[in-house]
Amino acid sequence: DLPPLPRMHMETGGGEQKLPVGLRRQQRRIVVTGGAGFVGSHLVDKLMARGDSVIVIDNFFTGRRENLAHHFGSPRFELIRHDVVDPILLEVDQIYHLACPASPYKTNVMGTLNMLGLAKRIGARFLLTSTSEVYGDPLEHPQKETYWGNVNPIGERSCYDEGKRTAETLAMDYHRGADVEVRIARIFNTYGPRMCIDDGRVVSNFVAQAIRKQPLTVYGDGKQTRSFQYVSDLVDGLISLMEGDYIGPFNLGNPGEFTMLELAQVVKETVDPSASIEFKPNTADDPHKRKPDITKAKALLNWEPKVSLREGLPLMVSDFRQRLLNG
Ligand code: NAD
Ligand code: UDP
Ligand code: UDP
């Protein structure tokens, strides 16, 4: 094993304002796994803006270099193409662990294990981005963090649900057994600029369909609900959690609850009032409703979302228009 590096007092890079030593905030070295993805790249923007040194680990499974292109050349930024299923040696203070592909059991288990092993070796704080899917098709509504969930262990979506549940278990095990400082976020459906266009999520589907003048595909009767959070609110919550004193888990989501038919209506109003709706069969084990109880995050992290769906959607729509019409 490599010994941990001494905490370096790094200078900020060329062209940036340099404060006298006494006034400089200690610069942190931070790893963001999955940092080339949708949420990760926004998180990286915020960490870079406050002066931290950021290393992104990403295998570009769904992430894109373009999401980070504006940081290339900064002496505080590094991008490593690496699969977190393989071990890696680094020296950092904090690890935001977001890496997660679409069919993700191995990444959630092996990748989380490696990042926890890394955190243990170097004494870094570790944040896991878990998911509201750990609640499965919930029998409690809205969901509090104390709810244990209703998950089918052998269903089509269980490699995601159970993968994240296992990742939470590993994080708590490393916390109890190896004193790793862990933080757990349970993220509810999040949307915003840079979201994957074609990965089948409902907001990206509806927005892309409306822009392409295709019918919006509503699965099932469209009465199932979700709660949609704008990405900047999530990033604020992740940073508050990492910097705070509480392990969690914390629900990070917007309590505003919409049926898929209501969402289709908001997308129509925002993009194209003449868009039509087409009903399609729903997928197996689709949760009927989901809405976060965020009392705990409000009280302990002093966090709550600020951006409503009607405010956030236009910001995503302009990004999607640009990407769809230019490529
Ligand atoms: P995303 O697909 O845009 O980002 C995931 C990133 O991880 C991508 O850049 C991908 O290339 C990378 N990656 C995947 N497998 C990897 C591996 N084995 N090694 C290295 N990198 C790998 O997804 P996102 O929406 O930004 O999600 C980020 C995190 O938040 C994920 O852990 C996800 O489960 C969680 N989350 C997101 C939402 C949401 O609504 N967006 C909801 C709940 C939880
Ligand atoms: N690991 C890593 N980087 C490190 C330290 C550990 O990727 O800097 C990996 C290591 O290869 C192992 C996992 O993290 O696969 C768990 O490490 P830990 O030391 O907890 O477990 P052990 O190796 O003792 O089984
Ligand atoms: N959905 C839909 N049309 C689509 C894609 C999804 O009606 O084109 C529905 C899906 O059945 C589910 C909800 O939207 O009830 C949210 O799906 P998504 O995959 O975005 O998120 P998750 O199910 O993981 O919360």
TrEMBL record:
One of its GO terms (cellular component) is Golgi cisterna membrane. Residues 32-314 form the NAD(P)-binding domain. One of its GO terms (molecular function) is NAD+ binding. Its cofactor is NAD(+). It is a single-pass type II membrane protein. The keyword Nucleotide-binding does not apply. It is an enzyme of class 4 (lyase). Pathway: Nucleotide-sugar biosynthesis; UDP-alpha-D-xylose biosynthesis; UDP-alpha-D-xylose from UDP-alpha-D-glucuronate: step 1/1. GO terms for biological process: D-xylose metabolic process; UDP-D-xylose biosynthetic process. It is found in: Golgi apparatus, Golgi stack membrane. It comes from the Eukaryota. Its main location: Golgi. Its EC number is 4.1.1.35. Keywords: Decarboxylase, Golgi apparatus, Lyase, Membrane, NAD, Transmembrane, Transmembrane helix. Belongs to the NAD(P)-dependent epimerase/dehydratase family. UDP-glucuronic acid decarboxylase subfamily. Catalyzes the NAD-dependent decarboxylation of UDP-glucuronic acid to UDP-xylose. Necessary for the biosynthesis of the core tetrasaccharide in glycosaminoglycan biosynthesis. This is UDP-glucuronate decarboxylase. It comes from Spirodela intermedia (Intermediate duckweed). The lineage of its organism: Eukaryota, Viridiplantae, Streptophyta, Embryophyta, Tracheophyta. The chain holds residues 68 to 394 of 394 of the full protein.
